[in-house]
Amino acid sequence: MIYYPTCDIVVTSPICSDCPDKELGDVRGFALIHESRVFVDPTSAVEWNAGINAEEIYVFPYARGGVVPTEHEVAGFGNTNTEVDGYDYVVNTFEPNYVNDYAFWNTVKDSRSYRVAYKTETRIHIADENASIIAKAPVTEGEKREAIIWNIMFKFSQKALIRPFAAPNGIFDRCLALS
Questions:
Q1: How is residue 176 annotated by DSSP?
Q2: The dihedral formed by the CA atoms of 176, 150, 62 and 133, expressed in degrees to the nearest 10
Q3: Average of per-residue pLDDT across 75-88
Q4: C-alpha span between 102 and 92 (Å, rounded)
Q5: Minimal CA–CA distance to 133: which of 152, 118, 147?
Q6: By CB count within 10 A, which of 17, 60, 142, 164 is most buried?
């Protein structure tokens, strides 16, 4: 006789609220985090500043963009047609420092050592896995008054959904200089 376990997992109970906290969308800022940087507390400005000063974190506080998670399905077994075994993410951002950030984007695009974090209204979301970085600066035909900006896409796959954390104070509010 062959025995297959039921794969039961402990499901966390949902929280019911008559007045749920709402988080407004749009990627408002983002950061690249080197794979060597591990957070004990992702909400800690002290940890973020240490990573920034070590040049292991690069923060872009002025951005816009969106995130598209797509479920990654594999063939199922028995009565299950498919199973979700993770998510493919595309974080599509726009960054306005076209001239000044050329050297940065031209070099970091070849790295496979960075995770992306993006900020929405009050939350940051940090990828578990490193991302492919695609940097483009399209020039729109017939738009003589439209500024050229960076269109940066981060693509990665991971098993879990991206967890929201409270954004650390003072990190995504302004441009930060190394201290």
A1: -
A2: -70
A3: 89
A4: 18
A5: 152
A6: 60
Amino acid in position 134:
I
Does residue 45 register a pLDDT over 70? yes
CA angle 126, 127, 133 (to 5 degrees): 115
pLDDT of residue 32: 98
Report how far apart, in Å, the C-alpha atoms of 5 and of each of 2, 9, 66, 163 are. Answer: 10, 11, 39, 29
The residue type at 43: T
Q: CA-to-CA distance for 143 and 148, rounded, in angstroms? A: 10
The tokens of 178 are what?
A: 């190394």
The residues, any chain, with a CB within 8 Å of residue 22's CB and separated by 6 or more, are: none
Q: Which amino acid, residue 34? A: H
Which of 10-24, 45-59, 112-126, 152-166 is predicted with the least confidence, judged by mean pLDDT?
Answer: 10-24
> At a CB cut-off of 8 Å and minimum separation 6, what does 128 contact?
115, 158, 159, 160, 162
Q: How far apart are CA 87 and CA 106, in angstroms?
A: 28
Percent of the chain with pLDDT over 70: 94
Sign of CA dihedral 82, 4, 158, 130: negative
